[in-house]
Amino acid sequence: MHDYLAPVFAQYPLPVARAEGVWLYTPDGRRVLDMYGGHAVAALGYGHKGWTQALMQQAEAVNFQTNAVPMDVRLRAAQRLVKFSGLPFERVFFINSGAEANENALKMAFAVNPGRSEVIALDQGWHGRTPGAAAITWGAMGKWYGYPRTPFDVQFIPRQDVAGLAHITEKTAAVFVEPVQGVGGAFDIGASFLQALRKRCDETGAMLVFDEVQCGMGRTGQPFGANLYGVMPDMLTTAKALGNGFPCSALLMSAKVSQAIKLDAMGTTFGGGPMACAVIEAVIEAIESEDLLANVRRVSAYIRETCIVGPVTGHQGAGFLTGLKTRVPAKLVQQALLAENILTGTSGDPQVLRLLPPFVLSEADVDVLSSALARLKL
Ligand SMILES: Cc1ncc(COP(=O)(O)O)c(C=O)c1O
Fold it and tell me: 0.85 cut: is pTM over it?
């Protein structure tokens, strides 16, 4: 068959025909343990009954209406998401992808801080591929940014050096940070730096934005990194696990940001569509009713206890955003594990293997990984 797909993604040698729980099946019947969850998306694993039912019921009831038409399911999803966060957010704006959520957070930061021209982000941070989100993505400019210029001024500061916070000034509209960096190597920014960041943003009026597209929605074993570290941002963006595979994202806004929202300040066709909202409700329902945050905490601790074997020398990150530090290039470990029928990820750090498994992963599944790691001759 002729391949019409744009050749922009390196391909794993792993065609997938179907999936169930934490297992992927190739067309020729090979069974592969998924420790990567489709880039942190498949939070509930595959074939989750409640999620599938919610999607089907909503598709039958009404598959789409715009944001101009009030719908209970949209109101419920926003309320459920804020309640799940346990944080005093006032408003939610639903969109479709992580980059789009960050793009709108940038817009709202400039709305709160008119006249400011600069945004600050962290070294190794990753925020998406659209013009604004890519402008604050570390390293994008030299590699794949792709536009003639950035839409605003950007500065990157070191990820845990408090001295760098002096770069945040009255010119800074916003500071973007992933509380646990994903692409940056499952790297835990930590409470003390985030608290210092909060303090500096309060002093200067800069909006603190947590990009929890990858680390949010329970992946750390808490609803969000904001809960894990006890730091309240002005805005929080989330996506990936939010829909468990149905494309959707959300921007959560504090009271201060909400006051700056004006009619037509943001917009979207598909964002907040009823099927997206139904699956958001279903994802939160599953996380809560199946006690998945506790599972993430318990099983991620087990990974850290049992998987520092073979080529693995240590770990970093939080919960199921785990970085396994490797003695040899992580890419080699990833390839060797795939030959053992285990799918893992790499990251921006060549010595870190990234694990982003579904929240339903069990200790028995981790045993499969630890024994494979112990067998590797690298
Ligand atoms: C932290 C973070 N922010 C933003 C994005 C962009 O999300 P999307 O690909 O849905 O636009 C990603 C995607 O990997 C991410 O990891």
Answer: yes
